[in-house]
Amino acid sequence: MADRYDAVVVGSGFGGAVVAARLAEAGRSVCVLERGRRWAPREFPRSFARIRQAVWDPSASYGFLDYRVFRRIDVIQGCGVGGGSLQYFNVQLRTPPEIFSRPEWPEPFSRALLDPHYDRVQDVVEAAPLVPPEGEQMPGRARAFLAGAARAGFAAELVPLAVHTGPTRANPVSGRIQEPCDFNADCLIGCRTAAKNNLDVTFIPMGERHGMELRPLHQAERIRPAEGGGYTVVARRYDPAQPGRFDRCEVTGSVLVLSAGTLGSTELLLRARDVDRTLPRLPASVGRYFSGNGDMIFAGAGGTDEEVDPSHGPSITVGALVQRPGSPYLITLQDLGFPPTVTSILDEVMLTGAKLGSIWRALSSYVGAVRGRRRFAAEELFLGSPIPHSLPYLGMGTDARDGVFSIAPDGQLVLAWDPAASMGMFAEMEAAMKAMSEGLGGHYVPSLLWRRPFRHLLTAHPLGGCAMGSSAALGVVDHRGQVWGHPGLYVADGSVIPGPLAVNPSMTIAALADRIAYWMLHDREITGSGS
């Protein structure tokens, strides 16, 4: 392994994997530092006991799920070769054009500007609306959502998913063998059939085929200018056999691309400016403009007319874009499926009256069967559960993008965020969820986290912290992803997005990364011919 490259990329998620693959494809020497490990499909956990191994805790386990708790909002993010794609829900939506007209987006941004890059990403991830595998039918969750949305007056449709549902094949990009989706909503805890067109199935092997070097279990700690130009990354190199043990190494790139995610990239720049003072002239806006993308998770409909079975099918299948007439808020609602392991646990702890009654009837029949007086009604053990008639929601919307990251005196990353300025949007989101629930013949069930007195949220789509801006006074990076006043230092991940997208951001992060790489290589916009 070398210690100097044309480009060093920190992170292998939707930003880093795309930038690194495109640079390697163009003949650049590229090194990718990824804090997590590689995961083979059959390594992903399914039992409750093994799911704990999926949690990132480098002192104990190199999992792929990193759950961070802040005062008013929690963040779930990915780590491992492939970043968030290992546990995301496969949705590849293009951001609505009107989002790019919001004042936080710098010139020359528009949806038309990004469309060629969306196309280039689409060519690799092959996203398409769900077509069930042979022998399966459209999930009841999707059918119910479409019907409920129509009754509520919302226009819903199947969303594009980067999921293979056809016969077993070799992926056209990587050659990785993919079995069809097994139609269990296990996307959060990893895909054991490799049906998801994750980054480790697509862009990462594309880059490696062109010479990209990937170093798993390398966590960037500090960055500084390098002698002779470029930037040096100091990283922890974890021992793969002994969690908790590591040494340190240094890697230098003529170009450095931070793609460690909204939390990771922002923290690296904050430390370089405010703690290590290796880059003291970084823009003042580092850490500002955090948005949770308006995420509201764990709300849903209960008591639906139809049986929806939230664990059947991919984790998301359908969505509706909602905007009340005259409202400034754009909102997306989607169905949300949870792994069978999770719904089974919920089934055990949600002891409703109907379920207790069913259990009592089963036990009574068992006693009667022992005495030879009646049949054991074993089926009663499985009746009365609220889960099959519950439809969880994922809500996203245009929140206030007013969170601020900083480094605390104890060295920890902290996030000052409060939902107060976004309450109008969340009120409209909950009204839409209530209307959808009524359309399903059920009732609205608010998120436990969101109920008073907590008013706490969870986001899987953290954005901002290294936001784009038209000047150093308004942002951290320019429209090409380069940090203002620091030639050769780039950021390419969700942290550069200057505000909420109101849709799942993975495809937009990948398209922005594709555009950043194109500018790095050609110093111009892509042409209509895609070259």
Ends: how far apart? 32 Å
Structural class: alpha+beta
- Residue ranges: pLDDT <50 for 5 or more in a row? none
Q: Describe the biggest sheet?
A: 7 strands, mixed
Molecular shape:
globular
Number of helices: 10
Helix content: 10-25%
Taking all Cα atoms into account, the compactness measure Rg is 24 Å
The residue-averaged pLDDT reads 94
* Record field, number of beta strands: 22
What percent strand? Answer: 15-25%
Description of the molecule:
The protein is α+β, with helices and mostly antiparallel strands. The chain has ten helices and 22 strands. The relative contact order is 0.19. Helix content is 24%, strand content 20%. Helix 1 (16-25) runs parallel beside helix 5. The mean pLDDT is 94. It has helices spanning 16-25, 48-51, 111-125, 140-152, 203-209, 261-275, 340-349, 353-370, 423-439, 506-522; strands at 4-10, 30-33, 56-57, 61-62, 65-69, 73-78, 156-158, 169-170, 177-178, 213-215, 218-225, 231-238, 246-258, 296-302, 318-322, 331-335, 391-397, 404-407, 413-416, 443-445, 457-459, 489-491. The strands form six sheets. Strands 1, 2, 10, 11, 12, 13 and 22 form a seven-stranded mixed beta sheet that branches. A six-stranded antiparallel beta sheet has the order 7-15-16-17-14-20, covered by helices on one side.
